[in-house]
UniProtKB/TrEMBL annotation:
Residues 417-438 are annotated as: Disordered. Signal peptide: none annotated. It comes from the Eukaryota. It holds the Pfam family RVT_1. PANTHER family: POL PROTEIN, RIBONUCLEASE H. This is Reverse transcriptase domain-containing protein. Residues 23-133 form the Reverse transcriptase domain.
Amino acid sequence: LVEVPEHYHLGNANVETFMRTVNNDSCWFSCIDIDSAFESLEVTEEGSNLLCFNIMGKVYKSTVALQGFSYSAMCWTYHLRHGLQAALGANFTDMCAIFVDDILVFGKTYDQCMARRRVICAVLRALKKKISTKTPATVTTHIDCVGLEWSSDGVKLNKENEATLRTALTTTPKSGAQLRRLLGSVNFAQGAFPYLEKRSDLSSAKKTLFALVDVKPFRLTQEGRKALAVLANAYGNAPLALHSYGNLISGVNTCWTLIFDASEDAVGGALYRCKGSTSDIDTEDLKDPAKSSLVGVFSKALDVHQRGWAVYEKEIYSVLTGMRKWYRLLVATTKPTTKGDPMAVPKILILTDSMVCMYRWRDFKLPESPLSSVKSRRFLGWCETVASWQALPYVIKHCKGMSNDFADLLSRWVSRPSAPTRPSANDEESTMGAPPYKKPCMMNTISHGANEEDDIKIDKALELTDEQAKLVAEALIQDDSTFQGVRIKDIYK
């Protein structure tokens, strides 16, 4: 086995990363296609050992990064990024976005976009890359690139792919291979289904169809026909608004709004860029194109174990999944815009569609030892994830006049694992900030002299003598392992 260096994996072909490089004020676009891209990359003798193929029983080494090798794509992407950065500096992504051998150049004006194209082409020639003549060397307001149509309105499937997918959704598949190709197109165009009642319905439909792909002989069941009908009726090819990692959100004039939902077998959500502050936004504003723009969507099917979760667990898992997906974008775009007042204004609003997600925590009781069940361990893992959100300026709301902090809900479970949480006087107020973790949340701390009303049950097996506690403290001070990216010994010094 060959271990590929981690930095070769960064920035590889990913539509999400590709989209997040294009600024939201871009109005003019141009596409550059590199001809025989992989073959232009020579490899060392050591690298040739990773690019071998067998023909008629003979093993050959390639001296260039041949098409068809996954390692070639990683080497090429790193090589191209490194070359552009060496020539133009680290901010070359302000001029263009890269998807394998396709480069999308963008700009606010025609002249700016054309000038950037000339600069990029000059760098490519210096790198001895051949620019394909099949792609027009024009600058336009609408352009096709990697099967998508780009404009100031956003990005969506191009006309050819839109027509192909529309036809496929209305045609009954005759084989598993045909159904597999259809599902591949649906995965590529998740934003093309704006008329779903719930985002989780997309994964529910896909899961039903995926189960039929490998069935022999192939037969489209009644459930499969219903799933196809759901996709066909929801198909609309709506554009997703452009928004790069460098476009900051003020929290006053603009804010992020995330909505989540869960069904029996899937979770889903959507990310909107809204005009106004988080205190002014409600679900009706998300339906108004003048007030909000859809930036991203996601849906994920639940496995057989997750489908057995309680409703509130699925609701919370949908929030966790969506926040993980857009975490990099949220962190990059909500960083402090002023030095004196860094995080005073909430910039992210999370909306849930179930009161269960908000209040089931209040009367939920765990076994005597919070480390004794699978459910407990899963919740502790979720708490660790939420702890990393403490730097994000967000609020979570269910309806008008009701706001809560998701991290605070989880932190209550950590601090009071078996006792119902008493109502807070601040339940009607928006809360924001870090959960009150005094120590890493995976540590089962013992609170001596606790109030008897709290009824906290302590696991007797975890009580330590003074000598044992001293040994544990010494071990923590020397522990090089990390929690949330910080070494344990640095936390306890």
